[in-house]
Amino acid sequence: MKNTLIRIISLLLVTLLMISFAVGCSGDTDTTAESRTEAVTDGTDDISVTEGETDTEDAATTVFTDTDTEPQTDTETDEKTETETETEEEVTVTQTEAVTTETVTTEKETTAPETTAEETTVPVTTAEVTTVPETTAEVTTAAETTKEQTAKTEAPKVLDTTTIGQGRVLIYGTAEPDSAIRTTVNGSEMTNKCKDKYFYIEVGVGETSSDVYLYATADGKAESSACKVTVTPTDKSTSVWGGKDSRLFYMETLNFLIGNRADESSLNSIAGFITNKTITEIQKVTGKETKLIYAIIPDPATAYYDEQFKYVQDYVLNPSTSAMMSFTNKLNGMHKDVYTVDLFSVMRAHKGESIYFTTDTHYTELGAYYAYLEIMKKVKADYPSSKVRTVENGDYKVDYIDVDGGDLCSMAGISMREVVPFFVANFSDTGTYYVSKRNDGIKSAGFGPSSWERNSTLKDSSNPTAYFIADSYGCYILPFIGANFSKVWTNEGVLWNFELDKTILAQNKPDYVIILVCQRNVSPNFMDSENRIRIASMSVQSF
Predict the structure, then answer these.
(1) pLDDT of residue 16
(2) Are 151 and 217 a contacting pair, CB within 8 Å?
(3) Predicted pLDDT at 90
(4) Which residues contact 488 (CB under 8 A, 6 or more apart)?
(5) What is the per-residue pLDDT for 89?
(6) Given Cys at both, which of 17, 36, 109, 117 links 65, Cβ 3.0 to 4.6 Å?
(7) Is 273 within 8 Å of 496 (Cβ atoms)?
(8) Per-residue pLDDT, 540
């Protein structure tokens, strides 16, 4: 009896334990389902996966859980697992493609398997693929990746085209500022940069009509859709040729660079003429140690030698062997009062800035500003107390203005515009060479009008004086010269008059005579057969 009673009690205890275990399992299942539902509903901000719950592949896929669904059978569970595995593979493929093509957005959507409840659909957008450590993983939600989606660059717009030479066509247009423009035509491809918001691209198209496709890519954006333009070359020939990164050049400077090695005999003659006669005569008339400064402005074709196409470089000599450099190097140090200014190195150092026009054969005010600073270094060495007005000191501010194009437009037979820097003085005593270029009346340096006065005087300045002689490159630098030398004198007509006026020298006794010319006005043969100055800009015929 006693043994029977013990068996009955043991049976009851086992039964009670089994009931408690069943109840406990039922409660755990409900809690897990509720927790997974919460993860989908509130997981738009962040979903974290705890170590041991999933592997790295699962961490890259958003998990979808439907609420209020009936318990699934083993068959249904297997089907859902297969569907989710396929979805994971699709996401993985999409991410891999995004890395390969560097395209930042995908529009494919992943949908949870069909159930009796409402479906949940979330777009899959890949902005960046990051390797997730195996121990911890982070899932980026659709809302976050949508914000990181990269915008597409606007397609470039072609404004006009024109033939500039045999089989060569110039395409002019606009795009997002500083975009890279990829161009394809007849199976060839090249990439050029915009100059601010405009591009000027030479393409070779042969003798028949060709379809040209242009694509723009702005910084931080995806490449644009194509802009197609059909060009039909003509037999027109111009004095313009194109270069890389929206550079245009004057054909005459190409001819000038090809054969511009200085004749050694002629070079020795001109150097001796300047140091033995020109400076001597100047100082004799002024009665003082007037200094003579030669400043030769490199042509854009020289400053941007690396931006020329190879077919041009193959025919152009190394710029360092040109007559400009030969003259500068020869004359430098031959006489204590004769200075040469090395503007070749200066312009090369700043070629990444807008120092030359694209649509014109001259330098901009920014290029002229850098040339002026080099001249003032010579002046400052002689007169340490001289005030030199600079952007850094707050004397000038620079405005970038969208203006009509220059002389290369008429040569190419096309109207173009470009954005260029203009200097505005933050001081009132600017001299007479500043011209008003703005509606608000603020004076800015610029191409001098025919009404320019010949002379300029600053009211309260102890800076030295100068007699200034120049070709057309004097236009953009003369406002800086006039605003920094206490007095400036020029010849009749202001520019392009290289006759040294002894009356100006005798009456005004300038501290400096500044002769400034563009490189293309320096001939390799300085003296003629009778040992006379061939190019007046390199000295003075009257002397």
Answers:
(1) 54
(2) no
(3) 42
(4) 431, 433, 455, 456, 457, 465, 466, 467, 468, 478, 481, 482
(5) 41
(6) 36
(7) no
(8) 44
Structure tokens, 121? 């659909």
Cα 242 to Cα 375: distance, rounded to the nearest angstrom: 31
The pLDDT value given to residue 434: 76
Q: Which two tokens stand for residue 12?
A: 């009851």
Give the residues across from 249 on adjacent strands.
241
| 262 CB-contact burial (10 Å; exposed 0-12 / middle 13-18 / buried 19+) | buried
How far is CA 164 from each of CA 11, 81, 101, 181, 244, rounded to the nearest angstrom? 106, 66, 36, 20, 16
C-alpha span between 438 and 445 (Å, rounded): 11
Residue 477 identity (one-letter amino acid): I
Highest mean pLDDT among 104-108, 171-175, 527-531: 171-175
CA 153 to chain centre: 17
Question: What whole-number distance in Å separates Cα of residue 479 and Cα of residue 468?
Answer: 12
Q: Does the reported pTM lie above 0.85?
A: no
Assign 480 to helix, strand or coil.
helix
What distance in Å separates the CA atoms of residue 184 and residue 187, rounded to the nearest whole number? Answer: 7
Using CA of residue 279, residue 282, residue 287, residue 289, what is the dihedral sign? negative
Cα 233 from chain centroid (whole Å):
30
Give me the half-sphere count of Cα atoms (radius 13 Å) on the Cβ side of residue 232. Answer: 0
Number of H helices, E strands in the chain: 15, 23
Instruction: Tell me how far apart the terminal alpha carbons of the chain are, to the nearest angstrom.
Output: 148
Q: Is the pLDDT of residue 455 over 80?
A: yes
Position with higher pLDDT, 214 vs 427 = 214
Mean pLDDT, residues 126-151 taken together: 46
Give the chain's radius of gyration (CA, Å). 38
Q: Please tell me the predicted confidence (pLDDT) of residue 122.
A: 30
- pLDDT at position 310, please? 80
